[in-house]
Write a structure and sequence with these properties.
- It is a single chain.
- By secondary structure, the chain is α+β, with helices and mostly antiparallel strands.
- It is built from 6 helices and 3 strands.
- It has helices at residues 2-10, 21-31, 34-47, 90-97, 101-111, 114-123, and strands spanning 52-58, 64-70, 81-87.
- A 3-stranded antiparallel beta sheet has the order 2-1-3.
- Helix 2 packs across helix 6 and helix 3 (34-47) runs antiparallel to helix 5 (101-111).
- The longest helix is centred in the N-terminal third of the chain and has 14 residues, at 34-47.
- The protein is globular and about 35 Å long.
Length: 124
């Protein structure tokens, strides 16, 4: 439930898909640029085998990382705080994308709402 709640919170049709505010600063600091972050996130998501999620998380040292979890695992189990998440269970994409998981992953960045992500991130 936590993973899905964050997933649905992170997306919208408002086209706010470029990082802003504190999350932009920290993405740039930890990944070098938004483009680097996006490439790393897409690569991680593409390499996930089976059902699970790709997360942007914050560790105990406030460093941002991208991780994959299997099935319904949560970053909280690893003492990591989830910031944004992509649901990679087949039910999340199959009706629209069939077996084209790569298109689903790439299109996630079209509906990701970084204003919402930034608002959530600033409260952590």
């Amino acid at each position: 439930v936590l993973n899905h709640n964050l997933y649905f919170y992170n997306i919208s049709d408002k086209h706010n898909n470029i990082p802003v505010g504190k999350i932009k600063e920290d993405i740039d600091k930890n990944f070098g640029s938004f483009n680097n972050f996006k490439k790393e996130f897409i690569n991680s998501a593409t390499n996930l085998k089976g059902s699970g999620y790709t997360f942007l998380v914050k560790d105990k040292d406030n460093k941002l990382k991208i991780i994959n979890t299997s099935n319904d695992d949560s970053p909280y189990s690893y003492n990591l705080t989830p910031i944004l998440v992509l649901d990679l269970w087949e039910h999340a994409y199959f009706l629209k994308y069939k077996d084209n998981k790569e298109a689903y992953i790439n299109n996630f960045f079209e509906i990701l709402d970084f204003e919402k992500v930034n608002n959530y991130y600033q409260k952590l």
